[in-house]
Structures are given as structure tokens and as C-alpha cells.
Design brief:
α8 runs antiparallel to α10. The protein is built from 13 helices and 8 strands.
């Protein structure tokens, strides 16, 4: 059962985040209003409603973007809308057009990630994109998924279509979801190869890179605690060395020392070809990973390894301390030697 209390800004601002997963709290002023608190400190208002025999959790919005009184006032309207049956759309709509609408309304991604998604849609779903969404069958979806080489990609595209058709069902564009009863694509989950000793070897291998720009970019993958797409797209104007921050995200001590030693020329911290930033230096990374003795290591493995071990804290200074402590625990033994 959710913990109940009267929602007010002081309590919600100081709610502790759980170590893992999420907690749920309930408003005593309007018990229909509830809130998720994730291990990353994200707080989200929602309501529960049983629709067509199924329990649904309907998101209202994140706190404090949506304040408490607005959330309370939205509860009745949200529940009323959930009771209404979606209007049946008789106009024929190609899947491609509906996917464009779905991506615009429901997908929240950066520009680079959105471009990759659109490229994958065009490449892997081309057979059914021009078909009317209401006429697509389970066999059509099964055939297009079976034609995709690579289980990981096939699985992701099936999950994407599942979300698309669920949204189409909720909005009345289809009467049934053709993906709902498809078995999931069986996948051999990749075991991420990085451990503490491997990270030490990786940092040593990075430091042997002759190109300063590439060496600094790879070290920031370790010191920055963010995915490669964000690290490589850093701009000098977003850095605030007076407050040890980068666009609202705290910088570790090692990151600050690294960045302050770099030449501050141009807009990009890690410039690439054609006046743009580094995008995906796979050749250089493979060279570093091989030198570290982990040839199958990816750049994303570094981010995942660190974030699994990082203790979240809602306060930015506490979070920065946790980042520094984690790097100290892993890297200081090698630095002393």
C-alpha cells in the first residue's frame, strides 16, 4: 500500500529516493492522486483506473513541472477521459504517417537518436510502411520481423511496433493490436565485459593515445558519467567551472582538471571533421579496447558499468561527491602504484 500524507511542496521536495526501483506515495487530500519516486529522484504524478477490466496507470506529469494544485485539479478530467471509448477512425491512414505522428507525440529523444530511429524504421519496416494501419495483420508484422537480421534489432523493432499499435488502439486507428500475441524475439543477452581491473587497464590504454583530442574524449567517457552522444557533443559555452557544472549536470574533479587543460578553441570541446564534433570514433576505440585487453568492449559499456555502481542523490553536490567517491575507489589504487 502507498504511504499516505497531504501533498505539499516542502514534503515532496525532500522525499528521499529509493536505492532501487521506485516508491509510491498517495495524497490524503485526494486519494486518487499518487506519485512515483524513482531511484534517480524523478517524481511523477499519476492516477489509477480500471479500464475494460485492466488496471491502467495514467501519467499526469512530473513534479515540479506540474504543481500539486494543478495535479489535483486534473485528476477528475484524466479519469473521465479514461472512461471514454476511443473514436473509431474510418479514414485510411498509412502506417508511415501514423508512425510519424506517434514519434512526434510520444517519443522523447535527442536529435541524433531520433535520426537513428527514423533510419531504422525506413530500413527494417519498409515492407509495411505504405499499408493502411487498420489492414496490417499479425502475419504482416511477423514476416517483417523475421526478415530482420540480428535478434537484438528484431527485438527492438518488435517492441517499437508493439508500442505504436497500442497507441493506435488507444486512439481508435485499429480495433486490435496485431503485435500483442506475437512471441518475443529470443535474444542472447550480451554480457558486458568491464570490471574494476578492466577499467584500470582501459584508462591506461586511453592515456597511450597520441591524439590529445581523442584521448581527452575517451577519458571523459570515464569521468563524465554520461552516454557517448552527450560527451562528444559538449560545448564550451555550457561549462561552468565556477560551480563545477556542465549544463545543469555536475562535473567530477577529474573531469574539471581534464577540461581545463584542453585548448578552448571553437564551439565544440571535442571537435571532429567538417566543423562538427566527434560522432562515433569506432576505429580509435577498437584500438584502445584491444590495447586494454578487452576487444569486445563498447563505449556504452563504460557508461553502463559506472551508472550501475553510482549511488543516486537528489542534491547535486551530494551526487557529485558520489561520482568522485566512485572514481576514487576504482582509480586511486592504480594512481598510487
Amino acid at each position: 500500500m502507498a504511504h499516505q500524507f497531504y501533498f505539499n511542496p516542502y514534503i515532496l521536495d525532500n522525499l528521499p529516493a529509493p536505492q532501487t526501483g521506485f516508491d509510491v506515495v498517495q495524497d490524503m487530500s485526494d486519494p486518487r492522486l499518487r506519485m512515483y519516486i524513482t531511484s534517480r529522484g524523478v517524481k511523477t504524478f499519476f492516477v489509477r483506473k480500471r479500464v475494460n477490466g485492466k488496471d491502467r496507470r495514467i501519467i499526469i506529469g512530473n513534479y515540479p513541472d506540474v504543481d500539486i494544485e494543478d495535479a489535483r485539479s486534473m485528476v477528475a478530467d484524466v479519469l473521465a477521459q479514461a472512461k471514454q471509448k476511443p473514436v473509431s477512425r474510418r479514414r485510411k491512414t498509412p502506417l508511415k504517417k501514423f508512425i510519424d505522428m506517434y514519434v512526434h507525440k510520444r517519443v522523447r529523444r535527442g536529435e541524433d537518436s531520433r535520426v537513428k530511429l527514423e533510419r531504422a524504421i525506413k530500413k527494417h519496416l519498409g515492407e509495411i510502411l505504405e499499408k493502411n494501419i487498420s489492414e496490417i495483420t499479425t502475419g504482416d508484422v511477423q514476416g517483417v520481423i523475421a526478415s530482420i537480421s540480428g535478434r537484438a534489432i528484431a527485438g527492438r523493432m518488435q517492441e517499437f511496433l508493439q508500442s505504436v499499435f497500442k497507441y493506435a488502439l488507444d486512439t481508435g486507428y485499429v480495433k486490435q493490436n496485431p503485435v500483442a500475441n506475437l512471441p518475443r524475439v529470443e535474444q542472447n543477452r550480451r554480457v558486458r565485459p568491464l570490471n574494476n581491473a578492466g577499467l584500470l587497464r582501459l584508462v591506461d590504454a586511453i592515456n597511450q593515445e597520441a591524439d590529445q583530442n581523442m584521448r581527452s574524449a575517451f577519458l571523459m567517457l570515464v569521468y563524465g558519467f554520461l552516454p557517448k552522444s552527450k560527451i562528444f557533443a559538449m560545448q564550451w559555452e555550457d561549462l561552468d567551472f565556477n560551480h563545477d557544472m556542465w549544463g545543469g549536470f555536475p562535473l567530477t574533479d577529474r573531469a574539471i582538471v581534464l577540461l581545463q587543460d584542453m585548448p578552448q578553441t571553437g564551439n565544440w570541446v571535442f571537435p571532429g571533421r567538417g566543423g562538427f564534433h566527434i560522432i562515433d570514433p569506432r576505429v580509435a576505440w577498437r584500438r584502445v579496447a584491444k590495447r586494454a585487453g578487452i576487444p569486445n568492449l563498447t563505449m556504452d559499456d563504460v557508461y553502463k558499468f559506472l551508472m550501475r555502481r553510482l549511488k543516486w542523490a537528489p542534491d547535486k553536490n551530494d551526487f557529485r561527491d558520489n561520482m568522485n567517491d566512485l572514481l576514487d575507489d576504482v582509480l586511486i589504487p592504480a594512481e598510487i602504484v
